[in-house]
Amino acid sequence: MGANANNSSINHELSIDAARLMDRIMSLAEISPIAGGGNCRLALTDDDRDGRDLVVSWMRDLNMEVSVDAVGNIIAVWNVGSGPPVMTGSHIDTVRTGGKFDGNYGVIAGLEVVQTCQQNGVTPDHPLAVGIFTDEEGARFAPDMLGSLVYVGGMTTEEALDITAIDGPRLGDELVRIGYAGSAPCPGVIPHAFVELHIEQGPLLEANDVRIGAVTGVQGISWQEVTIVGQSNHAGTTPMSLRHDPTYVAAEIAVFLRKLSARYGSHQVCTVGKVDVFPNLINVVAARVTMTLDIRNTDEYLLQRAEMEVAAFLNEIATSEGVTITTKKLARFEPVEFDERVVAVIEQISNDLGNTTQRMPSGAGHDAQMLARVCPTAMIFVPSINGISHNPAEDTETDDLVAGANILLHAMLNLCSTDFAKV
Length: 423
Ligand code: GLV
Ligand code: MN
Ligand code: MN
Fold this sequence. Notes:
GO terms for molecular function: hydrolase activity, acting on carbon-nitrogen (but not peptide) bonds, in linear amidines. By secondary structure, this protein is an alpha+beta fold.
């Protein structure tokens, strides 16, 4: 099957079933729908379990061998060919205000690849595997990409199981509760290669009128939680000059991040996505604010510099405002470069199938960035309408979703016959 990285020879007759792909995406989206057309399936909730149960039933319908490991990663293998599998996959957990496509598309397209091969008598040289990785979003349990991180041995199972959710429970207990504490070995099998298909979640492809992104890497991510403790007091009687107000300090931190991003240039992004104020009342100067900082850059040196500047600012403002500031690291991943050989396969197949294609880095975090630690890896992006994601309005044209799934199909077949020792 297929060819090597520099010479794709595609069977143009072989293509995925567009209606089936869309049916499955829409069926999964019927679990835990929210207003505006999106989904809320925070990791390891009952909704996540219902989504898992549905996708696992589809995996079993395809006679795939389904295993679940100690952190709930689900790996389904179609046992054909020999050697380690060529793997695809993504996640089906969502943020609280998630869309239908983030993660779900990649998993469902993987099943489409397997079913298309099975129905057309195509027998790849390697097994094909589809993974659903636990808690990619990190919205309920930090860090993000937690399941794939553990899958590649980047965090111990014990450490992961002890992480607590933003709403209290321990990850290990939630896995047992929803019936997804498995026994498959972890770290898991190292794939022959890994390709993840995903919506772009940003505006670049659409702005450039390009259908496919051949993703060259993922920017670095730094997450921390900042807790500011001040002096709670009466809103009417406390003179401004005597205040130690954590809400004011939180606002100054948000402004500092915005200005820092402007100074560092377009590769620097900073977000304050979660702010909890206590006691959160109109006429009380707050006692405490807890806020999250999400700081990302494609350049590790600049990311470190940004982190140092933020730390210095926190010290400075704690002193000047007479508050106490403590920080807790939630996630820290360096920028990742994908495997040039896999990027080239994706780019060539996309072009051969008649798609406009560009190379680009990913602004969002993805499971592929963890798999890249252990095997040749890259990603395929399709456009997001208006660049909107992590929002129920997230959407992608059906033709683009179908084009991406066909590239995944041919890329996986190509990688089955790529001898990485030789290319
Ligand atoms: C995951 O979606 C992330 O990039 O935050
Ligand atoms: Mn995702
Ligand atoms: Mn996401």
